[in-house]
Amino acid sequence: MNLTLKKLAAGAALALGAVAALAATPIKIGSVLSVTGPAAFLGDPELKTLQLYIEDINKKGGVLGRPLELVHYDDGSDANKANGFAKRLIDDDKVDLLIGGTTTGATMSMVPLVQKAELPFISLAGAVVVIEPVKKWVFKTPHTDRMAAEKVFEDMKKRGLTKVALLSETSGFGQSGKKETEAVAGKYGVTLVASETYGPKDTDISPQLTKIKNVAGVQAVFVFGLGQGPAIVTKNYRQLGISLPLYQSHGVASDDFLKLAGAAAEGVRLPSPAQLIPEKLPANDPQKPLVTAYDKAYKERFKDDVSSFGGYAHDALQIAVHAIKQAGSTDKAKVRDAIEATKGFVATSGTYNLSATDHLGLDLSAFRMLEVKGGNWTLVP
């Protein structure tokens, strides 16, 4: 072999070696979730879902011939810790993409870091502030608090309920929900005749509910919170003998709410993704195969019920994987652009149509109005 051929052969070998090395290099998915603390209600199923589907994707050959690696930290429902872990994921772990921010507070603590690092970030938090105003590198999968308020008011309007008391949590999610509820009430002919708040760690919310009970003319109560608080509210509501229609936000769209609130949940209505009712969806519903498969896989693996929160993590991961495939690489700018270009993407929470002006991509049709009957979820016609 002459010198030129030897050089070509050596160059080819190096190139093949580089390709092989790249193929073996994991695609790092960073994650900061509230697996413990007050928001564990949400964060635990989110982490389990990411683990379940990353394992499944890897068994099928990974993405672009590379395995996915989940690099996860538990913020303990503490937004300050979320900020520190996001910094670690960016600076030390060198992740390719970030999924997380179980709560709005945690998400917003991470936003400046991902914006500066120019890292694609898909949040699992509910508040509209995550995506409004639009932030170049930040997306989210859960329906917004504004959408939840609008879906609730749509249903109230059908029932002739126009005088409403609002009870909101002092968390980031609850306060954003309060603000958005106040902003859209007039659009649906609703007057907020009372407004009370409670803390996420409160164990008795009877005083606030007693004030609401004594307000003249109130026709319904709307609770905006997440985790265990709304279940406590629901129990206190029944203990006080309040018989007005009770609405919750999508912050409790989980079978855990039914377990925590027990019989007191009977008659409660709330907006929810399709994930809670796979067996009740019509056969021709485009989401039915997906939510049914997720429900089956999660229950088989974890021996536990699914929640819409796990669904948000499922959707974030699938959108991220789809974007990496569309980009043909893990180049952060290309992946970001591919996420923003996602159209007609059917997932557990709805069909996503993102754009440069909409980093969520869901509309009100992605919500189903549910009512608790006989200790289970039913679809409101």
Describe this structure in words.
This protein has 381 residues and is of the alpha/beta class. Helices cover 44% and strands 18% of the residues. The protein contains twelve helices and 14 strands. The N and C termini lie far apart (79 Å). About 2% of the residues have low confidence.
Write out key terms for the chains shown.
381 residues; five-stranded parallel β-sheet; 12 helices; 14 strands; globular
Strand content: 15-25%
Distance between the termini: 79 Å
Task: Give the H and E element order.
Answer: HEHEHEHEEHEHEHEHEHEHHHEEEE
Helix- and strand-based class?
alpha/beta
Would you count the extended β strands for me? Answer: 14
Please describe the biggest sheet, giving its number of strands, its sense, and whether it closes into a barrel: 5 strands, parallel
DSSP helix fraction: 40-55%
Query: Strand order, biggest sheet?
Result: 2-1-3-4-5
Q: What is the radius of gyration?
A: 23 Å
Mean pLDDT: 94
Name the shape in a single word.
Answer: globular
- The number of helical runs is 12
State the low-pLDDT regions, or none: 15-22
In short:
44% of the residues lie in helices and 18% in strands. The protein has helices spanning 3-24, 40-59, 79-91, 104-117, 145-158, 172-184, 206-213, 229-239, 255-261, 288-302, 308-327, 332-340; strands at 27-33, 68-74, 97-100, 121-123, 138-140, 163-169, 191-198, 220-224, 246-248, 269-272, 345-347, 350-352, 368-373, 376-379. A 5-stranded parallel β-sheet has the order 2-1-3-4-5, with helices on both faces.
